[in-house]
Amino acid sequence: MGAKRINKSRRRFLKKSVVAGGTILATSGLKPFSVLIFAAKEPEDTLNPWYGIGIDIEKCIGCGMCAKSCKLENDVPQEPFYFRSWVEQYTIKNDGTIKVESPNGGIDGFSQSVPDNEIFKTFFVPKMCNQCAKSPCTQVCPVGATYESPEGIALVDEEYCIGCRYCIQACPYGCRYLHPEKKTVDKCTLCYHRITKGLKPACMETCPTGARIYGDLNDKDGELSLFLKKHNCQILKPHLNTGSKLYYNELSAEVR
Amino acid sequence: MPPQLKTLLPFFAALILFFLIIRHFLIPESFGELGHYRANSIEEIGDLPIHYAGKSVCIDCHDIEAEQQRNDSHASLSCEICHGPGAKHANDYEVKLIKSGTRKDCGRCHNLHSARKIEAVVQVNIQEHHTERENCIDCHNPHAVWELKE
Ligand code: SF4
Ligand code: SF4
């Protein structure tokens, strides 16, 4: 009698351990599939940096040092004229027409092409990747080679990019290009290799007027947060809901 | 269980196993750790070499120029605006940097241009300004701009 009962409970125990062991084994087998289960999210942890950029159009003098130093810092080919960062000049003429020019992306500076008496208003607009929080470019990548880093910077994994150019098409701001030698996509990384070493991005290091700043949007007393509070800032193409984190002070409605 | 299924089952099992093995080898290490990408690539990008050393590195050695500049209107400028990227020079003094100071160099910021705010930067017509001298630095010391040379 007693021996039988022991046998029964032993059997039950064995059964239970097999089930438990099997579950552990099965979940460990599922781990590689976490990739499939993953869904994009904004960080809830506000202690980590969440980078954004501020550009003060009032201060920009169109010297083009930002565009030039960007090319030198990031080994962007000098020619053909591909850019991670470039400068445009907008001229609104007295007759209402708008002229946009960007000779060689501004790397050699600007000379005045429209005579003074025809100009109603003119200004420079430096452009670069907006480091969108809902970036269309990263959403379309078929292989997961471009992504938003935990700090909110859109990066490209050179090793993994297959050069399909889909993201170039998807970016509404024209901030990506196919590197002619590497045959992979390249774009502004906010000089990730510099900011992680405590240096400013090259374009901000060399901007003579301090027209460009970057900073942590989570830091409410930081330089960028102050810039946003002080000025009436706009982003480019807000209707596209890209979650752009590049804020312009004094942006005119003509700028596309 | 129908006998057809019985013979096919091991075949399907083998197929699925084969797929899983191939998949295991195709997915790189660290893929999916942080998201649908290779987490290691963040570090790889962060490890890229820098070219612009930053002003604090320059003024470590060049204290005379730094002192001159600190007291003049170019005080806020970074050295590498005019001298180009200097990280290599900072590691090896033999690597020489450029010295800009031609009309074209200075004109990038100072040439008269209607899109430049007059309060943002001093502007001259570089084609007409003191044509008897060739380069801007023939008169102006770029580190102390209003110290004019004879
Ligand atoms: S600006 Fe373009 S490249 Fe940059 S994050 Fe937005 S969509 Fe992507
Ligand atoms: S370096 Fe600064 S001032 Fe010069 S073009 Fe770029 S943003 Fe404007």
Automatic annotation (TrEMBL), chain A:
Protein keywords: 4Fe-4S, Iron, Iron-sulfur, Metal-binding
Protein biosynthesis among keywords: no
Signal peptide: none
Molecular function terms, GO-annotated: 4 iron, 4 sulfur cluster binding; metal ion binding
InterPro entries in alphabetical order: 4Fe4S_Fe-S-bd, 4Fe4S_Fe_S_CS, ET_IronSulfur_Cluster-Binding, TAT_signal
Domain 4Fe-4S ferredoxin-type per the UniProt entry, residue ranges: 51-81, 120-151, 152-181
Keyword flag Lyase: no
Organism: Maribellus comscasis
PANTHER family reported in the protein's UniProt record: PROTEIN NRFC (PTHR43177), PROTEIN NRFC HOMOLOG (PTHR43177:SF3)
Classification via Gene3D superfamilies: 3.30.70.20
Entry protein name: 4Fe-4S dicluster domain-containing protein
Tree of life domain: Bacteria
Automatic annotation (TrEMBL), chain B:
Listed transmembrane segments: 7-26
InterPro entries cross-referenced by the UniProt entry: Multihaem_cyt_sf
Superkingdom of the organism of origin: Bacteria
Keywords: Membrane, Transmembrane, Transmembrane helix
Protein name: Uncharacterized protein
Organism in which the protein naturally occurs: Maribellus comscasis
